[in-house]
Amino acid sequence: MTDEAMEVRDASAGYALQADRPMVPEGYRDTEIGIIPEDWEVSAVRQKGEVLAGKALAVNAPGEQRPYLRTKNVLDGRIDTADVLKMPMTDEQFRQFQIRNGDVLLNEGQSLGLVGRCAIYKDEYPEPCAIQNALLRFRARSGICENFAAYLFRHCQQTGIFSRISLQTTSVAHLGSTRFGRLRLAWPTEVEQRAIATALSDADELLETLDRLIAKKRDIKQATMQQLLTGETRLPGFVGEWEEKEFDEVLERINGKRHQVQASDYQSIGIYPVIDQGKEAVVGFSDASDRLFECPYGGVIIFGDHTCIVKFVNYDFIIGADGTQVVKAKKGQITRFYAYCLQYSGVEQTGYNRHFKHLRDKRFVVPSGEEQIAIASALSALDNEIEALEKRRAKTVALKQAMMQELLTGRTRLI
User: Fold this and answer.
1) How far, in Å, CA of 294 to CA of 236, rounded?
2) Is the dihedral of CA 197, 27, 45, 189 positive or negative?
3) Are the C-beta atoms of 304 and 278 separated by less than 8 Å?
4) What is the reported pTM?
5) Which of 108, 163, 210, 376 could potentially form a cystine with 337 if both were Cys, beta carbons 3.0 to 4.6 Å apart?
6) Could you tell me if 414 and 40 are in contact, meaning their C-beta atoms sit under 8 angstroms apart?
7) Using one digit for the tens of pLDDT, what is the confidence trace for 65-111?
8) Which domain holds residue 341?
């Protein structure tokens, strides 16, 4: 098969071609990969930049120990150099596989959903560095904006184009330098490339700002928990000694067996939320009205018998799979206050074991019910601020995804 035929075949794998083509708007043209602006071109990736697979790992090979990046170091849109390994390379090999500022690095071998995950290298590592063969290097040619190329490749990864052209093995999908290099994509002029990259970069900067704000708010909450839950700082109007209490004096376990569904019964869409011992606030949904747990006034604590994760819930739900323990405060005590106590200083996990017995051994030093309410309200206000920022971030992510779809396909033009 000729290279030209191979390119057409690979493009068909990358794009979902339809038999019935839509009408072509004015200023656009129909191509093998779909409708694009008239002044855009369809070209193979290798025509727009040099594509290179990294060096195969060889621990006992000749040469000097040199640092290299691998899949663990290349995340979605950023490079993480916290864990960089070394392997022997000759001077010639190191020159061949070395990376430089502006190179786009892609995961060559990954799970099917993550294959092709990429980021631009911006000299994050303090010394010269190479790449292992689990990564691909795209080095843009003249007239190609590397930031645009990175966004285009991220779009290919997120929309499944890379996964469709990858070679799937038992557990790993391989993008392959040849398949990647032959992939035909739509490329605007350099001026429009830079305009698109700038718009998407502005969205990324907003996300980074929100991430910093969220991290700052979480740090403030952690410091506030330390001050308020230990009595180090008292809220205005409260005095008096705190009392030491055993678990059974202040909390009680609710038998939720009849409100429980198995993990195999979780639905992606349903009437009632399902809450289990995992990290997610809601793990799934269910329509089983006969299993609905009506949350008591004041809420309940969800404790992961295996995970030791603590969550506060104040709405009706269905209890998830085995290990999800439900606890509430006794009369005169405030459930949400104890949820914060357990989030701040809970039970240490000891592997996949049962931990509720250790929770029942806990002792609490607590204030009056009125002060518990005040402390829980102060911490809840911080939670609300964090939640508002997280919702704003989620909306920004959705907006950026829509922008990528519009700008990288030419549906919306910036110039």
Assistant:
1) 35
2) negative
3) yes
4) 0.82
5) 376
6) no
7) 999 999 999 999 999 999 999 999 999 999 999 999 999 999 999 88
8) 243-366
